[in-house]
Amino acid sequence: MRILTGTIRWIIRTAVLLGLLFAAGFVAFTSAIAPDHLPDGRNADGIVALTGGKARIGEAVRLLSAGRGKRMLITGVNPKTTSEQLQLLLPQGRDLFNCCIDLGREAEDTAGNAKETRDWVELHEFGSLIVVTSSYHMPRTLVELERLMPDAEIVPHAVVPSSFRAPNWWANRNVLRLIFSEYVKYLPALARLMATRAGFDIQAAGAFPSPRPA
Hints:
Elements: H1 2-32, E1 46-50, H2 54-65, E2 71-75, H3 83-89, H4 94-99, E3 101-104, H5 110-124, E4 128-134, H6 138-148, E5 153-159, H7 162-165, H8 173-197, H9 202-205
Parallel strand pairs: 1-2, 1-4, 2-3, 4-5
């Protein structure tokens, strides 16, 4: 009986500790994507925009127009979406589509975005990269890129959604739900990175599968 009681106490204490760590991690994650974290101002060889919103692509095109990178990749483009359709959405970057913008159509999630980006960077022999995605999506994106491109210089350029700029944005249930969902997806991505650094072949073992994108 004493052994059973001790085991139950150990399980409860472990559960409480894990719960506290999970909660602390969520607070740190939320703080990291707060609106006062402004984009980095450095240039890079290439620019990559992850699909998921017109604002992301539009901001990446603006950076390319400003000479912040030599070439740009839009990763995760729907196979049915044509270059002409994208140009209609971004008329200010129409000329750039003909010379300096590539469309990646293979990625279906953030891990796929990272792989598509790595292949594009290797093709053009780039050593540095500006990454454009939403602020809440940036931590997971950086982790996936770090796992596949540990030697590349990654410059994050976060696009902050309008809902995150509103007063008391942290009290908005929809915003918190989105952040929590992203945090839950971020944790296995971080685990995959740690496993890779430890020399564990996660693809061969099939561990920590990539979640679907938000």
